[in-house]
Known about the structure:
Structural class: alpha+beta
Number of strands: 8
Low-confidence stretches: 1-15
Shape: elongated
Largest sheet: 8 strands, mixed
Mean pLDDT: 83
Distance between the termini: 46 Å
Amino acid sequence: MVRFASRKDRQHAVLSEEFERELTREVLRTELLRVRALIMTGCVMALFLTVIHLVDPAAVGQVWRGAEGLAEFYGVLAGFILFEVWVHSQIRKNLRLDRDLPVVRRYIGALIETSLPTVILILQIRTIGASQALGYAVPLIYFIFIILSTLRLDFWLSTFTGFVAAAELLAIAMVYDSSSGIGEPQTYFHAVRSIIILICGVLAGSVGAQLRRQFSASIAAATARDRVTNLFGQHVSPQVVERLMAEGTAATGDVRRVAVMFVDFRGFTAGAQSRTPQEVVDRLDGAFAVLVDILDRQGGIVNKFLGDGFLALFGAPLEASDAAHRAVAAGREMLTAMDRINAQTSWPLRIGIGIHFGEVVAGNIGSPRRKEYTVIGDTVNFASRLEALNKEFGSQLLISAAVREALGEDGGDAVALGQVAVRGYEQPVAVFQLG
Length: 435
């Protein structure tokens, strides 16, 4: 029990590590979007002011104290854009290294960014006065930073952004606006506006937190799906993956009654000698595609490919009360499908199938970082021996007595081959032929 628990803990740790890494990467990607949006916003502001200056220089001169004030504005904006370009490069570096940004750096960055409107506002106050500047467009720039803070996916960072914007705007108003004395109506105006900005920061943080939860759910689902695919291979049908995820199948080692099927292509090696490697691969892939599709429809999975054959399971990892029926139905359909394919190709292939039904131990084997789902037991060994007997009898589909018994009336066409000596077994065993 101690070993079993520690194995589960290691698997959970690996899964959590993968989840945290993917979540960090997703957060960094949204940070990149936010920074790009800020850089674009800065460039648009500079372009807009330049166009206005070319069209109506007098209007710009009234707002920015002529060329000197305009130069100061361009200098502040250029510094901001360069800072964001540096932030962008740091985020990309951390993304390549699968490393998160330090929390302190995030808050310092938020403080620097949100202070841009404050600096611009001070420059404008020096030109047109506090009352006009505070009632002009610059205070609205704070909302750009608050809205884009949702892409940080961090409630407290967005709230911090709203707090910095509200506090700095209120401080500017109290320092520069002479009509904002204690008890003056203008004071309440500035205070209410700052409170609204702070509330917007809190709301932006709530939206960001909700987005983060949705990202987390999506990444958790994707991680679980990847883990299922890694455990059971790429040839598990989407339906099986969905059921595994829905049922939370851990596949950590238990006794199951399953139908084990071995499939092998007869004479494939001899046929491959006279053909190019690409022709061999194309022929094998085409045949596998058809056979695996049949397995999917019958609820089986390919546990592993074995050169020019494969091992398939029915009843694991998902239990199936009619596993033997499903396996035999799949085997019959495979023979029919191969006959149809062989009639359309110059390289006909003959398959041999062996099916046995019994108990196995099904579980994950491998290192903590990479495991393979497999089945172990005499049932697997005997199914392999059955398939090999097809060479001796010139048959294509052999089943064991256990499968014949499980089929009942559905196995009425089974032909008894008597007690057959099987390699590795002391006593002869009953074997039946189908198809």
